Amino acid sequence: MARHYVKNAITKNPKEKKYLEYMNQIEFKERYVNKIHCGDCLDILKDLPDSCVDLVLTDPPYGLNLKMQGGTWGISYRHGDMKKWDYVIKEADIQLCIQKGKNAIIWGGNNYTMTPSRCWLVWEKPFFPTMSDNELAWTSFDKPTKSFRNNRIGNVNGHPTEKPLSLMVWCVENYSNPDALILDPFCGSGTTCVAAKMLGRRYIGIDISEKYCEIARQRLEAVDTGVPVKEQQKGQMAMFPNK
């Protein structure tokens, strides 16, 4: 008989409660952990247990009308054009994340009213088709500023806004413990999940695009099989010579 996953087990019997919690942990791992889930993250996240992940590392969508070969790109911000995901993160939500979380990295944090930071992350992208050559991330860390350079032209793994794997490796390695559970609700081609797997962490990846979910699964399989991925071929993974 298939087990039925219950998000929050409620029972007055202590033994039964402990048993249900144990079975839920098993079911949760089998159903969600170390998997790429295709669907709307707003729906999938509702089914996850409270406080089940150790780190949320994500890059929400932007520039959905991007055209690499000319023409208009970006997204219209006229009244009435907003999608649901435009309401996922607001400035008040960012402040709440900073208050509740132990550490925080906010990409585009220079666009919000933030407390002073001693450690800014700088993503250099001189050849990327944007209106700026750098992207800044505010952090709550008391460390020196860290810079990452991206020399690519176009997409690397079939995704137009993919972050460098070396950047995600740095974030996962420095701000999560071994065997931590990493969540990326906008995982795209799976860079965050690949970084997590390479570093011995567990992951949950979610994306609404079946195309990108399949790319993410192939990249995760490549970590096990040793089949080269494009980042490795381009030398981005020189820090992992045995992979």
TrEMBL record:
UniProt keyword annotation of Methyltransferase present: yes
GO CC annotations, alphabetized: cytoplasm
Residue intervals of the DNA methylase N-4/N-6 domain: 143-217
Which InterPro entries does its entry note? Answer: DNA_methylase_N4/N6, DNA_methylase_N6_adenine_CS, RM_Methyltransferase, SAM-dependent_MTases_sf
One GO molecular-function annotation for this sequence? DNA binding
Q: GO biological process annotations for this chain's record? A: methylation
Query: What keywords does the record list, in alphabetical order?
Result: Methyltransferase, Transferase
Q: Which PANTHER family match?
A: RNA METHYLASE-RELATED, TRNA (GUANINE(10)-N2)-METHYLTRANSFERASE HOMOLOG
Q: Which family does it belong to?
A: Belongs to the N(4)/N(6)-methyltransferase family.
Question: Could you tell me what this protein is called?
Answer: DNA methylase N-4/N-6 domain-containing protein
Query: What is the species listed in this Swiss-Prot or TrEMBL entry?
Result: marine sediment metagenome
